């Protein structure tokens, strides 16, 4: 009864009743809006080629030949021939190609770019050159990992949205005079962090060696370089102090000549 009295004594009872009546309708409209499929977030992909041939048949395809350049954000794909399926948004390069961005350069014998997922798969004589970020170290000394790291392998998957590369098959990493081999490596390019697994072995310019029964994590960040090895064995060079040779006693002075 108190609630009814409150409504009847309210200054604008008609407005209150109208608002209450409109609530179910508002809920219904909101529910219908939620049912509507959201519009896809389209991103522009720039394309250049000597010849572009488009098929409008049942299978919508685009064939690009001659100096093909596909740019998506800060990532550039180059090839001499690209076959693009508009439905799946998959671009195939049956021949050599390169994928470049500010953090890395990738090349291989053939590859596929999944533009919707922003993922690239490169196969055959794959080469990945990681460009280290230049930073001033706290002590002013040059970084040991200031030079680019080059990775060669059989296959490489590159998630170029998050900048993550996964390399496998006859994997070798070269950085200046250092060499590392493994079965697989996952490299987080932005974090400059690499994880290697599978019969990991390494050596450096001093002839020091290391091998791991587990995984190896390497930080290539300038000023914060480190390596963590599971089940490690290796050899290290230790500088030994050599005994100084005994100093020879000075030869006695010749006796003065006596004249008769």
List the helices and strands and how they pair.
Blueprint: H1 2-9, H2 13-35, E1 46-48, E2 51-55, E3 61-72, E4 75-85, E5 90-93, E6 97-100, E7 104-108, E8 110-114, E9 119-130, E10 149-159, E11 164-175, E12 178-188, E13 193-197, E14 200-203, E15 209-212, E16 216-219, E17 226-229, E18 232-235
Antiparallel strand pairs: 1-3, 2-3, 3-4, 4-5, 4-6, 5-8, 6-7, 7-9, 8-9, 9-10, 10-11, 11-12, 12-13, 12-14, 13-16, 14-15, 15-18, 16-17
Describe this structure in words.
By secondary structure, the chain is mainly beta. It has two domains: 2-35, no CATH class; 46-235, Sandwich (lipopolysaccharide transport protein A fold). The protein is 12% helix and 46% strand. It has two helices and 18 strands. It has helices at residues 2-9, 13-35; strands at 46-48, 51-55, 61-72, 75-85, 90-93, 97-100, 104-108, 110-114, 119-130, 149-159, 164-175, 178-188, 193-197, 200-203, 209-212, 216-219, 226-229, 232-235. Strands 4-5-8-9-7-6 form a six-stranded antiparallel barrel. The termini are far apart.
Series of secondary-structure elements, N-terminal to C-terminal: HHEEEEEEEEEEEEEEEEEE
CATH superfamily of the largest domain: Lipopolysaccharide (LPS) transport protein A like domain
Number of domains: 2
- CATH class value of the largest domain: Mainly Beta
Query: What gross morphology would you assign?
Result: elongated
Distance between the termini: 155 Å
CATH architecture of the largest domain: Sandwich
Percent strand equals: over 45%
Report low-confidence residues grouped into runs of 5 or more: 1-29
